[in-house]
């Protein structure tokens, strides 16, 4: 039965009041659960005072679990219950942010991720999953303010009231506050299929702008951590987005779902100690991102390091033994070949090889005639004392940053590049590495590659090994570590320090775990092969969720990138090892109004003629404004953009994004904080209530994938879009079908 007319309001109020009673009961119980969690936390701290080592470990685990729980319970306090299902053969079920049970373990609210909640998202009139009526409860804090019903089996609905007036569509039109929100109460069926897809292998999600790819990927993380906590909670979940602006935009979603344990990183800050601050030019991006950089970097790591000596001289029994540069180079090459390029780890091998070569040379030049009967180990013991300093300079322990900076020398870069690059490219690439203070996004992937080629530096053992041949005058010349002749108690102490260090390293940011159980990659269409290699190293055993829209790709050579992606995900290679892959497509655009989507579709038709646009569902009655300023200068266009912003400030309440071509000045405007100026690459994945696009003609032509980048720009707005162009032709392109 559908309530109509003035009665509608009263019926609805009565229904809301009834739901409120039910919700209040859940909140009372939630409060008790929070008290329990706090008691557990305190219990944990009391155990700490008891003080034995094993109780400390128990304490840590207990406090950790209890604080996670307390956090999740706090988060659930806002809009705890958001759904109700009336079923054919079961009492009504309530769906909420977390599961709530009575003291006797009867279910009051089921967690949205639990199997029983699936029907809330999946049921349709064609496939009702025994649901008669689905009801969404909209709340503010503890108060239910609106309800919206869907009747799935009208023939069975006797006695059920049906109310609602399109609150879902209305919720899509809400004002944006600058950061993304969770969508638990309104997840759509096709989105739910992705969120609950099998945990094995790889899930690939494609869809146009605004189809909820990012939202869905984040909810999938919450789902996986809830259903497979042991598996994914232990090894960790990594979420990677394109840039720091984007990670700041999405960082509140998981905490709002009670999930604080996933690691969120941008492509620019995946490598500890190297934060990217800029994008390279399209040409340099293409060079640095290409898979052939692997070869170049391997050669750079195995080359003679800058400043390394060209001559080793030792004197034994009056015999002068020399190893010159060609001999030294040969030794270096052999050691690298045997150690497969992990240069830092190979220092001990290098020391051994030098010793062998010195001895061979000593014999070769007749040393045994001058010092008859001398044994190799005597010669070696003597020679070692003389070559400690040489070894540190000739085989230095290097950092990735030093190696990359060393390629600012065009000769060195030319040697490393071999035939992979043209001379002009070498010059431009070399000067890009001369930046002293800032790395580019692509540089970060190169640093990571170098890190894997260098391997870990030899680790100090903190144990005295008097018999270690490389301990000279109390210093281990391989690791650089000082070793005193410690008393046994000291040895004991040093070992426990070591244990402590290892334990601490787990939550030390600089040494964070690099092999995750699950990796989520957002905006994956933009990744270069080198970036895929960087991600692959963080998920060697991982399952993956990859989210992308090829039509928004800024990366030119999608094919090479696809191969690198398959290698990272373990979906390439022979059939036996191939991990299963589940592909999904999202088809509804929840962000743009129909009017804004129409402009985006016109750009898409030029950028990727064969692509199918997603379907926008919300009409606003406001067409996009495409304003033409023939022959306007950059300054004049920026001035007009500012005027457009001032107009928009009166039209929308939330955020306004001014999207500029790459390299345009992002000048200071005297405008409220809700206005942001950014370049097109920074706009990836973001959304604003209103967007102002400046110079589509320049965005479209300033890189080979410019049209696709423009497609990103025009699909950011939820309510209003203004475009400023100097070109009549672009005016026509954007306004006429
Ligand atoms: N089921 C839903 N209920 C309510 N809002 C939704 C739903 N799905 C998506 N949205 C909203 O639509 C907007 C776009 O979602 P999202 O940013 O995840 O899209 P996307 O596919 O990642 O877009 P892009 O490709 O442009 O990065 C967000 O504001 C999101 O909250």
UniProtKB/TrEMBL annotation:
InterPro entries: AAA+_ATPase, DNA_helicase_UvrD/REP, P-loop_NTPase, UvrD-like_ATP-bd, UvrD-like_helicase_C. Transmembrane segments: none annotated. It comes from the Bacteria. Keywords: ATP-binding, Helicase, Hydrolase, Nucleotide-binding. ATP binds at residues 207-214. Residues 186-593 form the UvrD-like helicase ATP-binding domain. It holds the Pfam family AAA_19. This is AAA family ATPase. It comes from Actinocorallia longicatena.
